[in-house]
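[Meeting: bench + compute handoff]

Bench side (C.D.) handed over the final construct sequence. Compute side (W.E.) agreed to return the predicted structure before the next meeting so the bench team could plan truncations. Sequence as handed over:
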Amino acid sequence: MNIQTQPVGEILRDWRQRRRLSQLAFACDAEISARHLSFLETGRSKPSRQMLLHLAELLDVPFRERNMLLLAAGYAPVYSETRLDSPDAAAARRAVDLVLASHEPFPAIAVDRHWNLVAGNAALQLFLAGIPEELLQPPVNVLRLSLHPQGLGGRIENLGEWRAHIFERLQQQIDATNDAGLIELVRELEAYPGGRKPGEGYNSEYGGLIVPLKLKSDAGTLSFFTATTVFGTAVDITFSELVIESFMPADAFTAETVRELMA
């Protein structure tokens, strides 16, 4: 069911349950009575706009879904959604490009909430060499690109380990957002060769802190770990959902080789 067709009380209850909070615990957090919260969830009372935003903030509901909550209650949305190619987004795009460029000579990318490529730095060419043109038609989904057998899937040395890592991240996102697009993406990626089971030694090489991406190349195996950057102060939907993934060298050989390749 589309979330916008649900009564606002049901949507609130769904988000509360997704956060694994009892009515009593959440009512205490919200500084309202459990009775009042029950009335809001069952539709016996209609939340004010201020109350709805207050509860959504406590539940860490993404901005996009907060707008849907407001619409379901009959209120106008409050969070803007700026197109990345619009003049209003020019300054923010420059900031994104500056962050990406600062990671050179190592690859860095910016992706939207569905992992579609928004921007990349010059070092991204290290990953795209030899990729069939049909996989590079926009919008380029970087997870599809990385697991597709004709994409990077055929070049990733620890494919089982990397697949398991990606599915874990996607499940965390789905648990947090209940995004239908991500659920559909998981179904597609599961159909690619490799399954969901990790390889032997999964999550053990670096003490469980990171999962490396080990990429075969003519120069040898390049090993990267990723660091994620989000814009925590963004109040626009588009930029609140934007994520920067930076690929840092996991060993001295990779660092030296990439610097030589990008020189």
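W.E. noted at the follow-up: Residues 170 and 182 are 7 Å apart (CA to CA). C.D. will use this when planning the next construct.
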